[in-house]
Amino acid sequence: MADQVVVPVGIGELRASKDPLEVLVAYGLGSCIGVCLYDPQVKVGGLAHVMLPSSADAASQQPLSKFADQAVPMLIEEMGKLGALPRRMVCKMAGGAQMLVSPGFSGNGFNVGERNAEAVRAALGRHGVALQRAEVGGHRGRTLSIHVSTGRIMVRTIGEKEIEL
Amino acid sequence: MIAFTEGLRDDQWRTLRDVAARGATNAAAGLSEMVGRNIRIQTPDLRLVRLGEVSGLLGRPEDEVVGVYLSIGGDVRGHILLMLSPQEALGLVDMVLTQDGGSTAALGTMERSALGEIGNLTGTFFLNALAEVTRMNIQPSPPAVMIDMGAAVLDVPLAALANTADEALVIKTFFLDDQRRIEAAFLVMPDMPSLQAILEVLEKRWRIR
């Protein structure tokens, strides 16, 4: 029995895979959102580690994949190269926490997690991909992983049992 | 949009190292007063790295850390983060509350508050030194204490920095207590426009260099 290959998807990155041995992982999602897409018919999976909601407002456009509005279509395209189709894809996402909980911090700049979640939903809608589950918000960091062979998506937080999304 | 894709010149690195050392030394002096011990600093490490590489400088992304965060405002914008293991945090709280090592067993409200104070003091003292040498207006926010996965804590400064650049100057140092290094990484990350501004000011003021 071959071992699984854990492939970390770092902050601002995305990755598509058809390799049944691979498990794509986004570690320690705070305000960032891990967006998992899966086409069960061809068993193609993808994970995007999104940092910011929109490329429109930002002075820095590198890398484009750090923006929700760019990462979603970019990931769909990468998965498309491996035979996946948007209409067959399902999405599950996790993250978007508000890590700073302090009287000194409030207002627009500091709810980036919530804005990321909204931006991902909007991008999915624009590209015709159904959102099946969202484990977002709160104040805890999360690790999100997708097993390419099965499409199983797992979420864990410190001190809690790993759950399937 | 500023991009230090060519890297910084040698003289710019020297300038930044000098400023970082002054800031860190001041932070250690403040901490020494707070804990009543002679706290020194390890020579600060300075790197210009892509945002995706910051986490790799600091231990495993899922490891639980205590992060004390302050944002920097005024003429300089950026982030300060004191990152330490929960174990180290317990020891540091003991030191601050002048208790025997091993007294603090958990990080409750009072302990978090003490950690916030440590972050606030070291951060403020660092920024005071920076403000003095640059004559810029530099203000820290009140501290926020987070206890969670290291990567999640880092999202706070990294997501903010990502708006203006894909890279960050990471100034990292550790505090030394007698023979022992306190495993608390003290990180200062100005945003790229602020880094540019600091360099311009210091190049004018220290024209001899």
Structure in words:
The complex is a heterodimer of chains A (165) and B (209). Chain A has 165 residues and is of the alpha+beta class. Chain A contains 2 helices and 10 strands; from the N terminus they run E-E-E-E-E-H-E-H-E-E-E-E. In chain A, the strands form 2 sheets. Chain A has a 5-stranded mixed β-sheet with strand order 1-3-8-9-10, with no helix packed on it. In chain A, strand 9 (153-156) and strand 10 form a beta hairpin. In chain A, helix 1 crosses helix 2 (112-126). Chain B is an alpha+beta fold and 209 residues long. In chain B, strand 3 and strand 4 (78-84) form a beta hairpin. At the A-B interface, strand 3 of A face strand 3, strand 6 and helix 5 of B.
What's the topology here?
The complex is a heterodimer of chains A (165) and B (209).
Chain A: E1 5-8, E2 14-17, E3 22-29, E4 33-39, E5 44-50, H1 68-81, E6 90-95, H2 112-126, E7 130-136, E8 142-147, E9 153-156, E10 163-164
Parallel strand pairs in A: 1-3, 6-7
Antiparallel strand pairs in A: 2-5, 3-8, 4-5, 4-6, 8-9, 9-10
Helix pairs in contact in A: 1-2
Chain B: H1 10-35, E1 39-41, E2 45-50, H2 51-54, E3 64-74, E4 78-84, H3 86-96, H4 109-134, E5 138-140, E6 144-149, H5 150-161, E7 167-177, E8 180-190, H6 192-205
Antiparallel strand pairs in B: 1-7, 2-7, 3-4, 3-5, 3-6, 4-8, 7-8
The radius of gyration of chain B is: 17 Å
Global geometry of chain A: globular
Uncertain segments of chain A are none
**Beta-strand proportion of chain A:** 25-35%
What is the radius of gyration of chain A computed over CA atoms, rounded to a whole number of angstroms?
A: 15 Å
Query: What oligomeric arrangement do these chains adopt?
Result: heterodimer
Q: Structural class of chain A, please?
A: alpha+beta
Provide the low-confidence segments of chain B as ranges: none
Mean pLDDT of chain B: 90
The rough form of chain B would be described as: globular
- Could you describe the largest sheet of chain A, including whether it forms a barrel? 5 strands, mixed
- How many DSSP helices of chain B? 6
| Helix fraction of chain A by DSSP (H/I, runs of at least 4) | 10-25%
Distance between the termini of chain A: 26 Å
Mean pLDDT of chain A: 93
